[in-house]
From TrEMBL:
Residue ranges crossing the lipid bilayer per the database entry: 6-22, 34-52, 92-113
Pfam families: SpoVAC_SpoVAEB (PF03862)
Keyword annotations of the record: Membrane, Transmembrane, Transmembrane helix
Protein name, as recorded: Stage V sporulation protein AE
Superkingdom of the organism of origin: Bacteria
High-level lineage: Bacteria, Bacillati, Bacillota, Clostridia, Eubacteriales
Keyword Protein biosynthesis among record annotations: no
Provenance organism: [Bacteroides] pectinophilus ATCC 43243
Entry annotated with the keyword Membrane: yes
Length: 119
């Protein structure tokens, strides 16, 4: 039960911090998303993201920070195995499952919920 509470609080804090960035700065949402992905990759590269993930669980892996870290891990592993070619294929390999799942479940939800376009 304790892990669920920590994950909820950490994920909520990350989302609240992003909301503050959106409200209090002139940064566009797309730039904030890129900032989060890059921050996750940098934190993974310097070795800070894995201990954070071990402590926070899904609260740290689900937001875009976690996606940046997944890309970093994939690139690092691919470069170790394939050399410079890994720079180009590592991120795609590591992120493919998450992106595919998001697309598939998003499509299934659209079939169930019958979404409508905003006017």
């Amino acid at each position: 039960m304790e892990k669920y509470v920590i994950a909820f609080i950490v994920g909520g804090f990350i989302c609240a911090a992003v909301q503050v960035l959106m409200e209090k700065t002139k940064l566009m949402p797309g730039r904030i998303m890129v900032l989060l992905v890059c921050a996750g990759a940098v934190l993974g590269a310097v070795g800070l993201y894995q201990p954070f993930t071990d402590w926070a669980g899904a609260g740290a892996t689900v937001p875009l920070l976690g996606f940046g870290n997944v890309l970093w891990k994939g690139i690092k592993e691919a470069v170790d195995n394939d050399g410079a070619l890994g720079l180009f294929k590592g991120g795609f390999t590591a992120g493919a499952v998450g992106c595919s799942a998001a697309l598939i479940f998003g499509y299934l939800c659209s079939l169930i919920c019958n979404p409508k376009m905003k006017k």
